[in-house]
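Morning. Coffee machine broken again, so started the prediction first thing and wrote up yesterday's gels while waiting. Chain of 267 residues, entered below exactly as on the submission form.
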Amino acid sequence: MARSALLNVMTQAAMKAGRSLSRDFGEVQNLQVSMKGPGDFVTNADLKAEKIARQELDKARPGFGFLMEESGETKGRDLQNRWIVDPLDGTSNFLHGLPHYCTSIALEREGEVVAGVIYNPINDELFVAERGQGAYVNDTRMRVAARRNLSECIVSTHIPHWGKEGHLDFLAQEKKIMKSVSGIRCTGSTALDLAYVAAGRIDGCWQVGPDPWDFAAGMILIREAGGFVTDIEGGKNMFSTHSILAGNDYVHAALKERIEEAKSTTA
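Came back before lunch.
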């Protein structure tokens, strides 16, 4: 595919940050045997990747604002445009030497996500989308899966930690959905879950608790791949509700129905 100048900027930033993580990932596996453990090392790897992404984006588009996992929000001179960046999505996987993590970058313009890039350095897979231009993985067009029988579908989620708000609600949702689908996956990376929905590898995804940098890029990937993305209530308040529900039209509606049924059992 021919990438726009905007996507080239985002791609360069994501790949440069992701390759930095790849180099550090080889080291964190060696640290597993040390007494100290790799926690501090991973934090530094995360911060280094964020710094790389920020420098690349700021150099190409000075004045844009930032919303970043590690350094929070920075207002830019350009109040219409804001980068939303997760330099390392899948931190726990990275920490334990599990090769499933990514860098995620989205551009929000006037409150709407208009472009997204997710880079998986382990598989060297680059997922990109821009509003109205379709979604691609390594230059191959993506479409969400076409399955219309929930019993044949695999869906992904994230399990909230015990004691966190919404944990019991989630368990009720999981029970309802588990009875209806072929399988549930919990991979540890929200961004890659959504990229895989866009690519048709996973049929649907529902999560409660993720932050905007976890899912902003994945939202536009799925929409440009022909899928549906809302909060778990079916609305447009993903950023404020910290929830997301995605799939093709049938899977999205079927998952929403199961979530509503779960709500009635916990009310």
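The chain has a mean pLDDT of 91. Going to sketch it on the whiteboard this afternoon.
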